[in-house]
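Minutes, methods subgroup
Present: GH (chair), OT, SY

1. OT presented the first of two proteins processed in the latest run. Sequence and structure tokens recorded below as shown on screen.
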Amino acid sequence: MKPKRVGIYVRISKDRKGQELGIQRQEKACRELCERMGWTVHKVYPENDTSASTTSRKKRPQYAEMVRDARDGVIDAIVVYSIDRLTRRITELTAFLEEQKEHGFAFATTEGEDTSTANGRMILTIKGAVAQQETERMAERVNTSLLQRREKGKPHAGGPRVFGFEEGSNFQRLVPEEVELIRLGYDMLMNRQTPGDIVRLWNAKGSRTSGAQTAWSIQKVKRIYRSERVGGIVTYKGQDIGDSVYPHPLTREEWENVQTILDGRSGTKKPGTAKRKHLYSGFLKCGGCGSTMRVQWATIQGRRFRRTFCHSGAVGRNGELGCGKVNRSYSWIEERLNEVVEAALNHRAPKPTAAPAEDLSGEINVLEERIRGLRKRWKAGDMEDEDYFDSLAHLRSQLQDLRVREAASAVREARTETDALAVWRDDSEQNLERRRALVSTVIQEVKVYSVGRGRRKPPEIDSIKITPIGAEGL
């Protein structure tokens, strides 16, 4: 019985001009084959500029859809130009032939392979192995060529533009205005100023990031100074090969100085890695710009209270700095969210008990005290910069490990607690991480909107918008 719903798969690895001429020629040859065999074409699955080699990590959605359609009976035959257009991986070819054997769809190539017999499948497998070997030999030649290029001091020419280098110059030409900013920032760091000071300087001068053209943040500035390209360091597979023959903003020695300074500074940590002091910090987002809002204590006219606000130095969801227009009392928001979390926990069934969480607070306090003492000695001039930064980096690494263990232990215990409400109602400072772990099982984020100037008691309930886990919002 002749197939009536044939799927044609066409693929080309490189299409630098984007004209799809290669896949058009393949499709034409496949259609001519179907016409000679009396098969009816149902659908074409094109993969343009997509590799199928053993070294490629790029997914092939059209190939996956074609196999799924063959498995589900949407198509009853597959036609390709040649076996190396289907795949260059022997494991993938074997899996494909198993799918064909199990689901019974027909398969043909314009080169005439026959999969209906054992000999035909053997020849097809041999061709697949040859195609894989060809790809691997090609990769070896390319890698050897790349290594030779690096050893000559020529860095990798691909990838997005790095701040300081001219667009399309393959990292061979510099942008003088941006180099001037990089060098100004270097001088600031060497004079014990911070990455935050560099952020303010670059933004004040109207500079923007090289990619999305957004305002600078501390992390983005650090990323520039962490880039080996900025120091003219040529790398190959993560290994330092030598110095670039092309101009670069900083010398190798200057770049290494910056690494020492950045390694020794606390910097801005990723959300959730620092020890939190407030239950909902990290969950609150500015309703205006999408920035993560900060929570801190404030004193106004002798009255001490907690507030949450959009910081104008934080990068919002549109890539620009925070709007700074939302400033709210934290207590009312905390009360409303506590009601939501407790109501959610009330509906949960108890879970089996787990081993008690590790108590690492003592070790953490000791390390924090050692860091404070180290900083005092350095500021007093009793320590050399190199000794200070080495010691500080070591202590901070230990402290970070302990905090990660503490947070992970709290999450595990919160998720297996027999009585989650008992954990939730324990509002002691030592229990904060476990309560935050419970919040993360209920609330994804909370958008906070401005309620205007002056005191309003109580604020409107719709001045916050809660997005629970697994829902759009309420």
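2. SY then presented the second protein from the same run.
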Amino acid sequence: MTRLKYEKTYELTFEDLRFISSSSTGDRIVAMLSYESCTTSVAAEDSTIWLLSFKLGEQTPSAQYMAKSESSDIEVGKMYFRYADHFSGRISSMCKLSLVVKAIEEKLTKRQLSMFKKDIFGHFLECRSFPFSGVILHNLLLRQVAHEEDSREDQLWFQIGEHLIRLSIVEWCLVTGLSFGVDTKQKNDEMEQRLRNTYFGGVHRKISVNEFDAVFKKLKFEEMDNMEALKIALFYFTDRVLNARKNHCQINFDWLDQVDDIEYFRKRPWGLLSWEIIYESLDNALFQKDEKLKRTRLKNPDHNIEKYNLYGFTSGVQAWIYEAIGGLPSTWVVKTKKKIPRILQWKPMVYLIINFAEVYSFFNDESRLEDILQTLEPNSTESSRKYWLSVKDYMPSIPDWVHKVFLNQLWNNGDCAVDSLVFDDRLNSYLCGRQHTMSKSMTDVDMLLIPVNLDGAHWVLARVDFRKNKILDGRSECYKIVQEITISILLEVSGCTLIRCS
């Protein structure tokens, strides 16, 4: 793609656009990129217009990055850490998914295990071998992109090569198969604490996470009522996997009391609860770690690896990485049969054979990165599943700044700043069919207008005609730019066929 450099602001006049609607007034047109100065004129033509407006400023310098510890005012959309400030790290994950699955399978009777398999966490029993890969997660966290601090949607963004990828409740739902919704209080406010009194030494006994592991393995499940065994196993999984933390921490006694009301426990939005835990852990994982590394190196020049912990369901994050970043080597992870939820599709390799330099190089090499999925979408089978239906009403929209970053990369190759966007973040939702702008679906749009600057000297306006399934302009150089920059996205939406115009 030609690298365009702009030394002044170019303007599109109404005359540049007039030919678009001259053949038929009332055409339904989407102007993907346009100037604010054109908005009034275009809308004056008797057409249905949706404008995503921006204006070009003077050439901007290369993207600036700032370490997360240096300033809380870092620009949204920029990576917290400059590439030059990236460092090796060693993560300890508190999540022991495979160990917990093994303990449950070994301790429960055949009947009790069958009951667990049919319950809310039963599908995770297939994750018997799911080793943690701290090297891959550390490389991901180094590439975290700054987001709005007051975001109510709690979505995390990362930059892999030139691509932005999102981890939000949508991705979390599809990967884990855990449900969302509004959490409610238990009807009985006075917990009976029966399970504590019966099996765990009473309400005054303190039990750490590590101690509960030992207690669980000593329980005689074969002498226990099957429903009692199920309740204890469900709590064990929830507290040790979804709420994973350091061994010396106390178990969540509230959850232990709540599981005795098993119907209430099952209805809790464990997707939301586990998401809140992992979000907090990931978002703060590298805070000031670079500064700590620098201080330690002053005392010990040989120190080159920063160690830190991750809490919550880190296995779910791994599975999302495997889904979002295509082409990962088979020495890191292998995709098995197509299953849902998606965590069941992956078999990670032992992390000891993966080194930092190998992953770091892969994440920066565009030639090795295959299908990068900015967001995950449900397939036909997933769309009807209870866990997906539970999250549909809570789906976050793509933030406005993501489109600005995307347009900077896509349209100007990073040389010009996108100053403003009209209609905020609806472009992606609209094109994906999740949200209709002005109550019109994409199938109701006849044309998409795409202004293209040729060699920094001349503006032309290409159009994609959805009625004729053609790209129309008549200039081969314009066609080439449109093809390279935007059509891969448009074809996904419209099913158009590329037809070169003479």
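Chair's summary of item 2: The chain has a mean pLDDT of 74.
Next meeting: continue with the remaining queue.
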